[in-house]
């Protein structure tokens, strides 16, 4: 306003509602939600029958810093939909290295543990084609405990089977 590059009256009209939004890297669960929305949008546009993200892709997205925030995530997904070869997107499709950073430098111990549990459960479920008895045995937990963990970690039925 002092440089007369922005109208003062317009500033005061817009300043009625202030909003602070943390960066995407600090909103772990939002990354997956937004990614699914973008996948549906761009999958429909390109008429591809993609079913979601592989476990490694989810981990790569959650551990990436996202300096470009939501716009960067959207662009990675848009490109991945166009270039994907399988039915589930991979870190390679997203142009994100699966081990890019460790992703735990800015998270609490609880969040890091939940990410690791989620990744391990998704990989184990994929290895057993969505069967629930064998993954529970591999993880040395009961089936009810596996279902509880899946609920807690937002792992849905459609996330269980591989591409």
* Overall mean confidence score, pLDDT: 85
CA(first)-CA(last) distance:
54 Å
Helix/strand order, N-terminal first: HHEHHEHHHH
Q: Which structural class best describes the helix and strand composition? A: mainly alpha
What is the tally of beta strands? 2
How would a crystallographer describe the biggest sheet? Answer: 2 strands, parallel
CATH class of the largest domain: Mainly Alpha
Rg, please? 19 Å
Lateral strand order in the biggest sheet: 1-2
Secondary-structure map with pairings?
Layout lengths: L7 H7 L13 H19 L5 E2 L1 H9 L5 H15 L4 E2 L1 H4 L14 H19 L5 H6 L4 H10 L11
Parallel strand pairs: 1-2
Helix pairs in contact: 2-4, 3-6
Provide structural commentary:
The protein is mostly helical. It has 2 domains: 23-107, Helicase, Ruva Protein, domain 3; 108-163. 55% of the residues lie in helices and 2% in strands. The protein contains 8 helices and 2 strands, in the order ααβααβαααα. A two-stranded parallel sheet has the order 1-2. The termini are far apart. Mean pLDDT is 85; it is low at 100-104.
């Amino acid at each position: 306003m002092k440089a007369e590059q922005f109208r003062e009256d317009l500033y005061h009209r817009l300043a009625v509602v202030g909003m602070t939004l943390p960066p995407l890297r600090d909103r772990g669960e939002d990354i997956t939600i937004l990614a699914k929305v973008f996948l549906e949008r761009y999958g429909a546009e390109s008429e591809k029958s993609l079913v979601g993200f592989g476990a490694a892709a989810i981990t790569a997205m959650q551990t990436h810093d996202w300096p470009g925030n939501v716009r960067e995530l959207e662009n990675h997904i848009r490109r991945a939909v166009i270039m994907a070869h399988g039915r589930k997107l991979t870190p390679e499709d997203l142009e994100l290295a699966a081990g890019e950073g460790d992703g735990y430098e800015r998270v609490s111990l609880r969040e890091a543990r939940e990410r690791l549990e989620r990744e391990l459960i998704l990989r184990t479920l994929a290895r057993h084609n969505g069967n629930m008895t064998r993954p529970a045995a591999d993880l040395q937990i009961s089936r009810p405990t596996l279902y509880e963990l899946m609920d807690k970690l937002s792992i849905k039925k459609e996330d269980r089977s591989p591409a």
